[in-house]
Amino acid sequence: MVIIETRDLKYAYPDGTQAIDGIDITIETGKKIAFVGPNGSGKSTLFLLFNGTLKPQHGEVLFHDRSLHYDSRSLNEIRKQIGIVFQNSNDQLFAPTVYHDVAFGPVNLGLTEEEVESCVTRTLESMGLTELRDKPPHHLSSGQKKKVAIAGVVAMEPDVIILDEPLSNLDPAGASEIMELLNELKHLGKTIIISTHDVDLASRWADVVYVLKGGQIYSSGHPSRIFSDRALMEHTKLKLPAIVETFREFEARGIAEGHAPMTLLDLMDSMESPYIGVRCAVADCDIQKRQQVGLCMREGTIVAALYSEQEATGKALSDAAAGDEVLVENVRGSLLSKTGRILVVQIPRVIEGGSKNVDIEEVQALLNGATFDKVGAMGTSAKVTAAKAGIHPDFDVDVIQSAMLSALRGLDCLVLASGGMAELVKKRVDERNQGGNRHIQCSIEKV
Ligand SMILES: Nc1ncnc2c1ncn2[C@@H]1O[C@H](COP(=O)(O)OP(=O)(O)OP(=O)(O)O)[C@@H](O)[C@H]1O
Ligand SMILES: [Mg+2]
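# magnesium ion complex -> structure
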């Protein structure tokens, strides 16, 4: 279902700058969309046209198939449904305290005082902002301001959330938290639109990418098509994502094949093969099971391996014990043939009572009852539950991918997942199992 559509949209600023120059796009409900493009290509202007902040001189914007009207009543309505986080947080924050800033939207929606209180508290908690609650926004660091601006929009629970450069000024942990939050919101059915200069982020996060240049759509499509097109990247002054660069290098050396990967898991898959135990990059040939090979590597490394179903043995050729038979572990060795399992524990979502409705002892018993090599937590209520149970997750961002990568290394994983995210983990694993040659066992348990 289409949620936002533009038809031959054109916008020029009062000084005559033609910022948007004929844009026709359709954005579907529930998708994660990334706009990329050089400085001045029109991303921010387009976003302001989406929710009626700017009025086009030509063409139109449609929301749920209806043209935008620019009277103040219609604009108020539309802004409840399309929330924007501006590129510059100073344009967004004005209230005397963080609390009042985040409360502004919910108050305007007509919620009662108690509802506002609970909504703001929940939002601040989920974004790790509780401690800043009473601070004036202009005393915050720029990363903190960004988070408060995002919280203000999230608290309104709009159908579409637009974030212009959401990660600028955020530290890596803060950036990951925000992207996780956006994933959680998408999972609740929201449509998320961002602009970014970070191709690594856009390639692994987005369902659809639009490339803007000179106020026009230069190209659009799935990230795997956009970001593997070197000519397109050069014409639009974008760079290839690091994962694609790495893949291209591996591909040139004959150790990876297939479509350009967008994630680490895809990259590892591009190096997997159903019949190969060891790959010989130097000789540019594949080594079959039970064959013995010698490769030149750094002194002391195991350079020859004999692969069987259960384990691999290798010969250390150049260190002190050259020629000794050694057991190869972890290096595509004995763990290779074993695949770890993923147990997903479903935690009720915040809105369903969250960790309050969870028997923490039951979670602890689960963890103590079986040995898990890695633990992940996905979504707000799962993270809170983990903290209450005294569990320090090995991964709380990119959880599905991290769990699958670990399982493929032979490690067993426990994943605490909020609400429907539990099914999402299983769905992703099942999808991968259909394509891959190494089956990962995945099951869901509710607490
Ligand atoms: N208020 C304004 N008055 C005149 N021209 C403007 C105004 N705001 C933006 N522009 C111009 O419109 C064009 C598009 O700007 P816009 O801010 O939409 O680009 P952008 O893609 O968001 O860039 P960035 O990556 O730097 O954020 C640019 O040429 C810019 O100089
Ligand atoms: Mg901009």
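# post-check
Residues 274-290, 293-304, 315-336 have pLDDT under 50 and may be disordered.
The chain is about 35% helix and 25% strand.
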